[in-house]
Amino acid sequence: MMALRDSASGREYDKFVNTDDGTALRVATVAGGSVSSNLVTASGTQDVSGSETVLLNKQTLSGKTGSWFVYNAGAQEIDVQMQCAYASGSGVFVGAGTNNDWDQVGSNQTIAAGATKHIPFNNVYNFVALTANTGGVTSSGVIAVLYAL
Question: pTM (2 decimals)?
């Protein structure tokens, strides 16, 4: 393993592992084979239309970093947006411009019909949500998955 930081108190070893399917986040497990409680996972399937569609709503990360994986099973290209909130009293994400606690992070990520996209994030957020929209025609069966550690 390769140290990413030099000091003994701040050593951080490889977080990622290469697999036949690409790069994956290395996950620590506990006795009995269950995944450590530090892992946040969420998934959902939605039909994305021309208006803003929430793929995954308010997930509590409390500073964990991670990745979104989005599979656009539909026949229409989609644009995906990551939303974040910091305030402890933030409600669920309702829509752009209607939640003062929520802001879009980064730029829109375009995912072609039938394609999968990995969207990693390294910044620290308390809460995140994932939204998407299309150019007008509905894209059916969009699957979003979040892994954060």
Answer: 0.74
